[in-house]
Amino acid sequence: MAIRNLRYEDDEILRKKSREIEVIDDKIKELANDMMETMHKWDGLGLAGPQVGVLKRIIVIDLYEEGMQFTLINPVVVKTKGTQEVEEGCLSFPNKFGKVERPKEVTVEALDLDGKKVKIKAKDLLAQALCHEIDHLNGVLFTDKVKEGTLEIVNPNNNNDVKGKK
Ligand code: NI
User: What is the CA(118)–ligand 1 centre distance, in A?
Assistant: First the structure.
């Protein structure tokens, strides 16, 4: 396992659309492990392929609760319900936070690392994290969706208490 370099806000790779993964081989498994490790290093809740410079449809999420760690291949939102206004951040924008509107509930279909189909019914924070990471696979960033006037820029010398980074 290894920590991968993160890509940051003006990196054009963050704007590109990721490709579907056709074969879950050892390289993809290694990528998944590295992404999980990299996310943990920076205390993130989620990370998507493009954020480590890989334009493949893979995301990792960890809400640091039992049963709330996921590695998903080719995830697709198949259903949404309701909306929630939430505070959001992103590991690619380490000092920016803002309010965005996300679905309150989502159903996501994907493959796990064994290539098995999984269906996740999520609400609240997990629904938010899934939508944020799947947006990354389409080149969409949370800053595109921030409600006017809510974007905060945190002083980099005083960011020990940042939260909700994805
Ligand atoms: Ni993000």
Answer: 22
What pTM value is reported for the model? 0.93
CATH class label, 12-92+101-144 = alpha beta
Q: How far is the CA of 38 from the centre of ligand 1 (A)?
A: 13
Q: Where are the domains of the chain?
A: 12-92+101-144
Residues with a catalytic annotation lie at 133
Which runs of E-coded beta strand occur in 26-156? Answer: 46-48, 58-62, 69-81, 84-90, 93-102, 105-111, 117-123, 152-153
Residues within 5 Å of ion ligand 1, judged at the Cβ atom: 90, 166
Å from CA of 89 to ligand 1 middle: 7
Per-residue pLDDT tens over the stretch 32-91: 999 999 999 999 999 999 999 999 999 999 999 999 999 999 999 999 999 999 999 999
